[in-house]
Every structure is written in C-alpha cells, then in structure tokens.
Amino acid sequence: MLNNIFEQVKYGCQPIKKRLKKCGTVKKGIVEATPVVWKGRLLRFEWMRSAAWGIGNEMRKDGYYHFVDMENEQEAGVPFAYAHSFGCAYEENGIMYVHGVNGSNGGTNIIDVCISRDLVNWDIKTAIVLPENLQIYNTSVCRGDGRYIMAIEVAGPKEMIGVPFTVIFAESNDLLSWKLLPMDEHIYLKEKYTACPSIRFYDGYYYMVYLEALPFYRYTPYIVRSKDLKDFEAAIVNPFMMFDDEDKRIARVNSLDAPTAQAMMRAVNCNDSDVDFCDFNGKTVILYSWGNQRGTEFLARAEYDGTLQELLESYFE
Predict the structure, then answer these.
(1) Is the dihedral of CA 140, 144, 148, 154 positive or negative?
(2) Is 70 exposed, middle or buried (0-12, 13-18, 19+ CB in 10 A)?
(3) Which of 19, 56, 208, 268 is the residue whose CA sits 20 to 30 A from 237?
(4) What is the greatest pairwise CA distance in the chain?
(5) How does pLDDT run across 266-310, given as a tens digit for each residue?
(6) CA angle 81, 24, 119 (to 5 degrees)
(7) Which residue did the predictor score with more confidence, 59 or 169?
C-alpha cells in the first residue's frame, strides 16, 4: 500500500479527485437561478421571465422574482420586484438580499436591491447606477476582504468592455449602496466572451465561475481566481463543467410532465451555463442551465460531496 503522496506520484497513482455529480433537470424555461439557505431550508431563487423571452404558455407582461423550496417545490414567500430581471440572492443575519436589474428584460444600467426578513414584505431601493452606455445582465454577490463584492455582467461600447459580454466589479460596506471599481483595472475579460459570473471569497482569493463561448456555437463555464480583482489566475482544471447527456436526467420522479420530458429529450444541448452554488448539509448544491442558448433552456441541479470552498479550491490543486 502506498503511504504518502510522494509514493503515489512516483508510481503514477495519485488519488482520484471527487467530481461533480449531475442530478438532472428540474424544470424548463428557468435560468439564472440561485440556491440559497434560508432559516435551515434550501431555497431556489428564480427570475420568472416576461413574455418577451417567448418561454412558457403564461404570457407575462413583466418579469418578477420569487423563491421555491427545493425540498417540496412549493413557493416560499410571495412574488416580488415586478419589472425586474437577472437577479441573484444573498442571505446574511436573517435578511435576504436580492440584487437585480431594474427592467423586465435586462439591459438597463440600474441595479436595485430588494430586502426582506420574511420573504413576504420587501423593500426595494436603487443599489447602483452604471454609466448610461452600459447594459447590465447577470450579477453575483459575496462577502470579501472587509467588504462585499458584486460581479456584474455587462455589454456596451467595445472601447469600454471589449468583446461582449464582460464582467466588472462593484464594492459595498452594507449590501445596500454600491460603488463601481475602476473599470480600467478591475475587469474580466475584454479579449473574449465572459458572462454569467458567480463569485465567492475564501482565504484571500476571489473565485469566479463564468461562461465562455467555444467554437461552433458552444458554451461552458470556466473558473478563475484573483486576490485583487485585477490579475486573474485560470484554474489548472478547466472547464468547470461540460454539457453532456447527464444533463438530460430527470432530477425528481414525476417532476416533469410528459410533454416537458419529451421536449427535454429532443432538445439540442450545446451549453452548460449560469452556474450558481451554496453549501447545504455538508454538500455543495449547484444550479445551472443547459440547452441551445437560443430560448430552449432547462434548469438542472448538480452536487459535490464536500464544501463549496473545497470544491472551488480543488480546481487549483
């Protein structure tokens, strides 16, 4: 038996790393969802898109947000923030914070913050206003080194953001009011498509999972890390995950009706995107979207048998 890592390397039998386990599809037509723990319950924050996205039979004039209990798939709290889009959820000290775009279909320059202690009563205020020539899409929030950091996916003039989409960053002391970090230094990455960020902070590093565009109209998430949000290190192991037939599992028995299940099996899959994650009961719960990136999209779940910190750090070992 090999007793230490030097013998394992010498004989070419290093331990096999734990891997993500894809658990299957949860529902159709929901993307950009956030798993979050609320008072011991695992919830899923969802943006219910407006009719302009052409998804589903319910023709909504305005998009809105709500939470779903992931144990029983029942709505938790009430719908809120109508005429908002592309949100993300963050909980701290019994308060739920949701940051998202003011506007049903994204692409405005305003991010609002929604605050609640019970998921029923919500206060909404402006969190940050970006320059008028920038358009905001996905966001992600974490506690960092003595401050909070928001990663913001933007489009805009090529001279400002390079190849769309691009990730810029803002900081806050209270999760309510935000200040944009200088874009000439804090940006990722002007040279290529970088979208759908999810950001976390552990032991001096900001870890960010984001979406890259591959040749032949394919998309998959990659992971980088940075100490200062200026210089970024790509992981040794990339991509973070890859689209495959495992996406087409059904996560829960009888959770999809027959037409949805049939549509899922027929769907083109060239994309794993919109990754977000949280710790729950010693495991990492991951939500992501798959489909064709043109409107036929499905929400799926994955898990890692360990903490989120362990998962993110494992890509750099």
Answers:
(1) negative
(2) buried
(3) 268
(4) 65
(5) 999 999 999 999 999 999 999 999 999 888 899 999 999 999 999
(6) 25
(7) 169
Tallying the residues shown for the chain, one arrives at 317
For every residue of the chain, DSSP letters joined together read ---SHHHHHHTT-PPPPP--EEEEEEEES--S-EEEEETTEEEEEEEE--GGG--SS---SS-EEEEEETTT--EEEEEE-TTEEEEEEEEETTEEEEEEEESTTS--SEEEEEEESSSSS-EEEEEEE--TT-EEEEEEEEE-SSSEEEEEEEE--HHHHSSSSEEEEEEESSSSS-EEPPTTTSEE-TTS-EEEEEEEEETTEEEEEEEEEETTTEEEEEEEEESSSSS-EE-SS--S----GGGGSBSSTT-S-HHHHHHHHHS---BEEEEEEEEETTEEEEEEEEE-SSS-EEEEEEEESS-HHHHHHHTT-
